[in-house]
């Protein structure tokens, strides 16, 4: 199912989010051909196998979400070439081995790697020490409340955008339908000017 899906995706896409879809199977190596990709989120599926080393070909990748799957094996060394990668989440998989060192992968928060008892190395405990530090309950509560505030903030902006878009659409439709072309063109010109200035 995954192989067919990625073959049909155009190579020029900048963002792909197919999270929470119950996709099964392995992530195909062909995914490395999507070279214009800036964001890839395939979290919360039932993906198995290893993380494809071809993801290292996605030089523009800024965000990679692979969490909550059943991925196994090591994090490929090729991911160290992704210099723009600022958001990386492989939490809650079955990954093992050392996290590639000396890269931005070691500067990320340890929550990006939690739920993988076989992973080790910065930012997790050193390899050979199997005890991972348990986050304090207050940290989890702070994270939950921060996430809730962010969601509430995003929802307000989303609703404001939908509301204002609806009002503008109704006004423009009314002007266009009643054939007040002069007023319609004036409004469109003002909108273009506002967009051009910003």
In words, what does this structure look like?
This is Receptor-like protein 12. It comes from Prunus avium. Residues 119-146 are annotated as: Disordered. A four-stranded parallel beta sheet has the order 1-3-5-7, with no helix packed on it. The protein is elongated and about 75 Å long. The chain contains three helices and nine strands. The model is unreliable at 1-7 and 129-143 (pLDDT under 50). It is α/β, with parallel strands linked by helices and 198 residues long. It has two domains: 2-134, Ribonuclease Inhibitor (Leucine-rich repeat, LRR (right-handed beta-alpha superhelix), Alpha-Beta Horseshoe), CATH 3.80.10.10; 140-197.
So what's the overall shape?
elongated
**Radius of gyration, whole Å:** 22 Å
| Series of secondary-structure elements, N-terminal to C-terminal | HEEEEEEEEEHH
Strand order of the largest sheet: 1-3-5-7
Q: What is the strand tally?
A: 9
Helix-strand category? alpha/beta
Proper CATH architecture of the largest domain: Alpha-Beta Horseshoe
CATH H-level name of the largest domain... which superfamily?
Answer: Ribonuclease Inhibitor
Percentage of β-strand residues: 5-15%
Q: Could you list the spans in which at least 5 consecutive residues all have pLDDT below 50?
A: 1-7, 129-143
Q: How many helices?
A: 3
Major sheet description: 4 strands, parallel
Helix content: 25-40%
CATH topology of the largest domain: Leucine-rich repeat, LRR (right-handed beta-alpha superhelix)
Determine the mean pLDDT.
78
How far from one another are the termini? 43 Å
Keywords: Cell membrane, Glycoprotein, Leucine-rich repeat, Membrane, Receptor, Repeat, Transmembrane, Transmembrane helix
InterPro entries: Leu-rich_rpt (IPR001611), LRR_dom_sf (IPR032675)
GO cellular component, one term: plasma membrane
Membrane topology: Single-pass type I membrane protein
